[in-house]
Amino acid sequence: MSQQKRLFLLDAYALIFRGYYALIKNPRINSKGMDTSAIMGFMNSLFDVIKREKPDHLAVCFDKDGSADRVEMYADYKANRDDTPDAIRTAIPWIQNILKAMHIPCIELSGLEADDIIGTLAKQAEKEDYKVFMVTPDKDFAQLVSKNIFMYRPSRMGNGIEIWGIPEVQKRFGVERPEQVIDYLGMMGDASDNIPGLPGVGDKTAKKFIKQFDSMEGLLANTHKLKGKMKEKVEENAALGRLSKQLATIIIDCDVTFDAEDYELSQPDNEKVQELFEELEFRRLKDQFIKIFSGDDDTTQAQVSSTPTAKAQVAEKEAGGGQFSLFGGDPAHTGETITDLNSRKTIGEVSHSYQSVAQGMAMELFLKNLMKQTSVCFDTETTGLDPL
Fold first, then answer.
1. Residues 86 and 185 reside in one and the same domain
2. What are the strands of the beta sheet with 57-61, ordered from one edge?
3. What average pLDDT does the chain have?
4. What integer pLDDT is reported at residue 5 of this predicted model?
């Protein structure tokens, strides 16, 4: 039986903010006076996921212009938040350029939060039999957890992770089903997003109401079972409760599509990534990158030609056996003439570069990329001409 494929979706801003504030007392300032804490913190989280998990598929999701729909519903949504620190604003394009050089998709849609993009992609991938890990410390994502969708919560300093499946969500929120987390958040509110919730309802009361009434709708339909001031507060703020639940609901049908090939972890542009790290003065991260993607400690790795998000082009021509042919077959099978073959460019006529492929992640990515090519050329060395 083939192993179930895994998709890791990173909540960019949650990890960037967390990385920045983890170093707030000892910020990383380079020789140019640039605060690189947010970039360093995010890259540490990304590399930790890649090293630990060796994911098949991975993408990073960004907020863009906030949630238009939620602000339209409630003008004070997230209005209590401080302005984004300049160091984080500066960090975003750097992070996106590094991800681009690593051939990792950056997904953002105007007017939508990363939560909604991750929610939509997670549900789509689940339908294609993927196991999905949402890499974020944000508790709101617990509402999306299912048999094949998990929260992957990194620690602040990279010292470990927590994985929340259904049992962990049930225990943390006192719910029977993960989707009831929406009702929990709607009842007690969420200070970080400025979602008001029901006045007088905190963690313990929300859990009690979930157990007794199952949902926000169940609570509001049975206020006659409440007593005293609580009955009065819930009845007077029923509309606020419904609104709060709506604000806390992650969208799972936004305009984004999961295409497995576009999210497959590919061979990075080693030269470009190292160039960016050198400019940022990230010596340790540069060394770490080389070890992860090259399999050894050499610092002179160069870019390998790859097509990270293009549709795979595997040679299908074979001589009746139904097997894929890595090399595309001989001229008789491919329809090419000797003239066609002789007209192909040689290594002396095209720009090229070299990379040592040792083991581990480097070898995995090399083989994945190799299998996407329509043809492959290789050279061997020998110690003698006698085959015996």
1. no
2. 106-107, 57-61, 6-11, 131-135, 149-154, 161-164
3. 83
4. 94
Q: Tell me, what CATH number does 208's domain have?
A: 1.10.150.20
The residue assigned the tokens 């609580």 is: 230
Checking if the pLDDT of 294 tops 80, the result is no
The verdict on 211 and 151 lying in the same domain is no
Nearest Cα neighbor of 250 from 169, 162, 145 is 145
| Per-residue pLDDT band at 229 (split at 50, 70, 90) | very high
Residues 168 and 304 in one domain: no
Q: Which amino acid is at 92?
A: I
Q: Where are the beta strands (DSSP E) in 234-327?
A: none
| Shared-domain flag, residues 148 and 183 | no
Determine the average pLDDT of the residues in 322-336.
41
- Other residues' Cβ atoms within 10 Å of the Cβ of residue 30: 13
Establish if 233 belongs to a structural domain. Answer: yes
Domain boundaries, position 236? 179-248
Q: Is the pLDDT of residue 266 over 80?
A: yes
Tell me, yes or no, whether 15 and 134 share the same domain: yes
Q: What is the mean pLDDT of residues 367-384?
A: 60
In whole angstroms, give the CA distance from residue 170 to residue 177.
7
Q: Are residues 164 and 194 in the same domain?
A: no
- 14, 16, 154, 215, 256 from 62: Cα distances, Å: 9, 10, 18, 30, 13
Q: Are 228 and 234 in contact (CB under 8 A)?
A: no
- β-strands 57-61, 131-135 pairing: unpaired
Query: What digits encode the pLDDT tens for the residues 103-134?
Result: 999 999 999 999 999 999 999 999 999 999 99
Cα 360 to Cα 312: distance, rounded to the nearest angstrom? 22
Q: pTM to 2 decimals?
A: 0.77
Task: Collapse the DSSP code of 35 into the 3-class scheme (helix H, G, I; strand E, B; otherwise coil) and give the result.
Answer: strand
Q: State the total domains in the chain.
A: 3
Cα 75 vs. chain centroid, distance in angstroms? 29
333 backbone dihedrals φ, ψ, rounded to 5°: -90, -30
Q: Does the residue 57 lie in any domain?
A: yes
Indicate if 21 and 141 belong to the same structural domain: yes
pLDDT at 293: 86
User: CA 21, CA 199: separation in Å to the nearest integer?
Assistant: 31
Weakest mean pLDDT among 26-30, 62-66, 162-166, 322-326: 322-326
